Fold this protein.
Amino acid sequence: MIGPSRLRCVLAWMVTVLLVCGSFPQEILAGITAIPPCRFDVSLNEPIRVTLSHALDVFKLEKLSLPFDQVVVNSETPVPPGWLHVEIVKDATKGQVDQTGCQKHGQESKGEGPLDQFSVPGGCYVSGEVPNLLRCSAGAVNSFMTGSSATRPGSPALLYVLAHELAHFHQNRRGEFSGKIETVDLHKPKALKLQQLERNCAPALITKEEEADNLALIVLRKRLPDAPYKEPLFSAKGSMYWNIDRIRLAASEWDKVTGHRLGLSEVKVHRTFDPNRNITLPASATSVKSASQRFVCDVLKSSKGIIRYPARQSTHPSPEARLRKIADILGGSAAEMSEAGSAEAYQPIANLQAGVSPIFAFFDREFGIYIEKIHSEVCSVVNGGVTEAMCE
């Protein structure tokens, strides 16, 4: 039996659909999934609103046009034209929700099992169907806010992600902050497995993604030196390195969340792509070629089980890879900043931060370069023809 509060939630959801789309059946047929308000994570309203305001200030300063000038988060009523509507959705598995799409009492999602149709499988995405709609996974937002607290309210990773999505609105195109893990069923015929590898090598529109990243970097460079992102006890340089490491912490946390939701804790990616494997970095051309051929041969010659691997992120690099790349780029800005102004008691910490952060950046950067080279070599093998001799 549906209680009064739950009934109001469902009715509000249905009214919203009717007002915006004309009728409930048409909305379903159009493929647009309206989120029941009971799935909104209202606890994240304020951090999202404040972070977006910081990013929007820079867009206005840089004269970067957007199709809206007002923001509302988790609205249960229709949003007027010219407003950005952000929905922060609590993810849930199919067995943890009732027929209305609301989570069953005491059944908060732990990320186990397939997600239901209302969940946001990636981090955030700009809707291609509903104008001015941005949806984010509440779990992803919490990951991006790693290292933030009431005493340290600004999250540099969240600022980057939201700025990147604003850039997609500026470009007037759909976009999503998410990665993808490909699964190859090894029982399939060799020809079908080869087709799957070939599809992963198809060219895509990387230019727009790089442009969105560049715009997001402008936002970070403009905002991170100031409150609430500036660590008041550190110098400008120390504070920037501090923020860089907070971005890496967020990347690591999102990596764990994604891996758990995809079942990667039980089924590992192929060893060629495993960051925990002992890989000498920078990787030599010989080792890249050998690892790539081994991966292709394992896919084509094996006939039992599955192989998982990160898809070639030519249209949208995986969240953790992108966050680490951004952290690496920001290191160049940090190196040019002033070392003056930090509290005396914190100067040794700031010095340590400035020294250790670039070391972490090296490993993140080199592993990212290694993965890019692996994908490129795999595609060369797949498109150039796989020989029997290669797999002996």
The beta strands are 70-73, 83-89, 124-126, 133-137, 175-177, 181-185, 306-310.
